[in-house]
Design brief:
Layout lengths: L4 H14 L16 E4 L3 E7 L6 E7 L11 H4 L11 H13 L4 H13 L4 H5 L5
Antiparallel strand pairs: 1-2, 2-3
């Protein structure tokens, strides 16, 4: 099973939530660098407790990890942190519109925003700021 970074991060988060140091009982920090070996159904991690300096080797079974992985290759290509989920044709259309507007989003919104704005006034569109 191939793991994309988002799925790997979810697995690491779940391990962190459940993992405690066997010596002192405190939480053990886990990140991408902790993963030493990953197979189709397992992961081998090397951890170090920051409280008592104990070294831990963890063999994690990935049963059920298939549900975390994208079901299709198309789903795997979508940026999970983005709410836009633009398709290639939409991105090309946006690039062409930006080229026509000289790379200015402000001109882009003035040119194309009036048609789709409906009830939104031109004045409120000019006052929009990004924070």
């Amino acid at each position: 099973m191939e793991l994309d970074p988002h799925t790997l991060q979810q697995i690491i988060q779940r391990i962190y939530q459940q993992m405690r140091c066997p010596q002192c009982g405190k939480r053990v920090p886990i990140d991408f660098t902790s993963v030493r070996l990953a197979g189709d159904d397992f992961m081998l991690l090397q951890l170090k407790c920051e409280t008592c300096d104990a070294y831990i080797v963890l063999h994690a079974s990935l049963q059920g990890a298939e549900a975390l992985a994208p079901q299709t290759t198309d789903d795997g290509m979508v940026n999970a942190s983005s709410a836009l989920h633009l398709k290639e044709g939409e991105v090309a259309q946006l690039q062409e519109a930006l080229t026509q507007c000289g790379g200015s989003f402000e001109q882009l919104f003035h040119r194309y925003g009036k048609e789709d704005a409906g009830e939104a006034s031109e004045e409120s569109a000019a006052d929009t700021t990004i924070v």
